[in-house]
Amino acid sequence: MTKTFEEKFNDYAELVVKVGLNLQEGQRLLIKAPMEAAGFVHKVTEHAYKNGCKRVFVDYKDAALERIHYTYAAEEVLENFAPTWEQELFTSLTEHNDCCLLITGEAPNAYSGIDSKRLKMVTKNNAKHTEAFTKARLNGEVPWVIAGVPTKGWAASVFPDQTEEEAIASLWEAIFQTVRADVTNPVEAWETHVQSLTQKVNFLNEKRIKTLHYRSTGTDLTIELHPDHLWMGGGHQSTAGKMFIPNLPTEEVFTAPLKYGVNGTVSSKKPLSAMGNIIDHFSLTFKDGKVVDYAAEKGYDTLKELLSLDEGMLYLGEVALVPHDSPISNSGVIFNNTLFDENASCHLAIGNVISMNIEGAGAMSKEELEEKGINSSTGHTDFMIGSHDLHIEAVDYQGHSFTLFADGNWAI
Q: Which family does it belong to (predicted)?
């Protein structure tokens, strides 16, 4: 029987709480969301309390107001201001292993036309004052989920030929499909999906791969994985021993590169929304791990500022595998949103390594991370490189070579 919108909407909110966050009785929840997502925030909050949540905190973001702030605020404010109440909340949530839900949905070009240098100031400042909280999330101390909710600007960018109402409805349906909220038993569907991803993770961890060689149109790149790398995918275990799924949707398995072990050129295959602007048809060239050259047909200035956030943004922090023949890719929808587009395509990330991907990294200082060849940065930006002609050849530590991806899909 076909489910109504209200049923899918409710099931999506329930999935976020019970499957994504796996919220436990007595935990608190911080929700950061666009103002247009208020209806979904209300439904998630309802399910959170029904699931035993102690307290829900909500921090709404107004993109139009942010534009005014980014345009007119003094540079010293853009570069240095951080509210003390937010710092105290982040610290408290981390200490108590509470949860965090990040709702994405801003228009991909929400800050188009604003001086890219001012946007860089804001991005660096946000990264700096949330650094400890971000580290706690990446260590698994704070179970977290990123989920999408349509806004007018985002929907218009995905379905430009539709009316505003039609575009929002179409984007909702696309999201429901990608998160499996449209099936009869979404929780059961996610259990099956996570099992499938776990099988891939187990295979890759048993193989102990040393290098990956990527080849496709515009791409010829070799990546040496960190010797202590761990593949992950689907559910992750928090430091409190509870499983959670950080991304809804998720189709990826991912791990960490060796900081200085990346060489060659890689080309993007989907648009990237970064710092409120679109970067498209871009390439990065690496030598001994570092970006030494880059180009972009669209958004060059934004790419330039992104790469200059700090030294760590010139190195890779994540290697992720997603088959071209995957549900999101097969939908034919380009979401102009990294959460969704990265789960339709193999991707890489410049910036900070996800510490859960390297054994023991969560307890290391920045100096120890550097000594071990683990990239550290205030930023972490995924970009999509998968395509129908992608070929990935793997070599293990015994020198054995095998094809991991052929024609964009798993060859194992």
A: Belongs to the peptidase M29 family.
Q: What is the pLDDT of residues 342-357, one digit of tens each?
A: 999 999 999 999 888 9
Nearest Cα to 3, choosing from 170, 185, 190, 188?
185
Q: Which of 131, 162, 178 is the last residue of a domain?
A: 178
Q: Are strands 253-255 and 257-267 parallel, antiparallel or unpaired?
A: unpaired
If one counts every other C-beta atom within 10 angstroms of the C-beta of residue 292, the result is 12
Residue 189 within a domain: no
Query: Do 75 and 224 reside in the same domain of the chain?
Result: no
Place of tokens 């436990």: 24
Q: What are phi and psi of 253, to 5 degrees?
A: -120, 140
Question: Where are the alpha helices (H) located in 81-185, listed in sequence order?
Answer: 84-95, 116-129, 131-139, 152-158, 164-178
Residue 303's H or E segment, with its range, is helix 300-307
Does residue 355 share a domain with residue 208?
A: yes
Whether residue 308 is found in the same domain as residue 393: yes
pTM, rounded to two decimals: 0.90
- Whether 397 maps to a domain, the answer reads yes
CATH of the domain at 56: 3.40.1830.10
Give yes or no: residues 213 and 128 share one domain. no
Residue 289: closest CA among 261, 317, 312: 261
Helix orientation angle between 186-207 and 5-15, rounded to the nearest 10 degrees: 40
Kindly compute the dihedral angle of the four CA atoms of residues 205, 206, 208, 211, in this order, to the nearest 10 degrees: -70
Contact 318/348 with Cβ under 8 angstroms?
yes
